[in-house]
Structure prediction request, 483 residues.
Amino acid sequence: MFDKKRKSIVRLALLTSLLIFGGCSKSFVVTSEVPQPLIERVAMKAKMDYSEEFKNYVYVEGGDDRALEKVDFGQAQVGMFERVFSNLLTIVEAEDSDYEMKIQPQILDFQYSIPAETKVNMYEIWLKYRLRITDKNDTEIADWVVKGYGKTPTSMLTSQLKAFNTASNVALRDIGAQLAIGFVTQPSIEDYIATRKLPEPAPVTDEELESEGDVEPDQTPLNDAAEVVEAATTKAEDLIEDKAALTDGAAENTDE
Amino acid sequence: MNKFLRVGLACAFLLLGACTTINVDHVQLEDNIEIIEGDSVVILGRKNTAEVETESSLVSCIGGRLQRRLRNVNVIPEQQFVNNFYPWFEARTAPQHPVKLRKVLDQPHVARRIEELGIRYFIWVEGSTERTDSKGSMTCSIGPGGGGCFGFGTWEDTSDYETTIWDVRSFKEVGRISTEAVGQSYMPAFVVPIPMLARVEGNACEGMGNQLSNFFVNNGDGIKRLR
Prediction:
């Protein structure tokens, strides 16, 4: 009986501490919720090259008076890049050497503002990334800087951390949208894809398919290069003979 | 006596209660535009600049109102649509003009999905509700013997929205609704604060939703046409 009472007191104390300290949490892990992009896939094998720093990126605030001191952003940003590029290109494993393009993302800047600081009822996030895109020989194809912005209004029943996570996801979606739409239209990337693309065979017409079955004897296709040369030579000889005959005839007419 | 007191209080609330003035204007830009049973419409809020943030709650409210009035038409929720068509309708990438929508629909994947869902009209809502004025003061205190608030506060909220309707088949704007709502809220406090809140956003939603559904009239055979 006494144990039961003590347990419920401990639970109540824990809940109270959670309520008190939970609201004042100064570090936060962003979770990525970027949806699957509706884009056309490029027939190219690529490798994603994330540095350890990028994968475990934590934004640490220098000032003492900021609302959040640490923002763990690594997992969320890797999740967004994976989601976008795995739908855009064929992504190979890190140890795989069969690829045509390597993408190395780097975070250049992360900034945030909250309503208590700006007096505007918005949580805002700014992101800046650099993408170094190289070929298999590490020759640079593109050096692309992408900036993203996300905001979410304050809401009475939404916690500060939830609102912050929403704003972060809006910013990640913004970056993802620019990557998904703009990747193939970046001039240097577009040129590289064009040079790597094999020419497509001309489509076979219905008439060609029908005539394939019953070929006339005089229309037999020449399968050998020697046959082509021989046919051309014979035709040229015939033409020379015809020309000589015509020249002789013309000379006779002049004499007359 | 109690009955009289209740009626008196209700009358006092009605007289003193918060009020909203709403003004809805609409323009129809095309004739003979129809929507048939089974077609879908999508209502989206503009969020293209740092200043513009059309409330998702308002967009959802208009969608709900439209769905209740047009039972045979499917109203697709905003977030579901934006996620399904990511990245084409994000704040930065969403088309600002019907001609740009045509360019988005040039993407075979997007066009196919639009067709699958039977989307006929895009309804864009742009604007927001903001606090435009506030006056008065209130003091609250708490002590060993109890607590309470004293004072009086009043504030004004203004809604300003522009709704445009795009036809997916003709890639043209077919209608436009402008809504402006102004509401004054009061909060007198004598020990207990008594909020008398003006439903400015709610009333704007009601006005826009009704006007939107009035565009569509039933001609008796299940086919609804724009008036």
Observations:
- Chain A is about 45% helix and 20% strand.
- The beta strands of chain A are 27-29, 45-48, 58-60, 70-72, 90-91, 101-113, 122-134, 140-153.
- The mean pLDDT of chain A is 78.
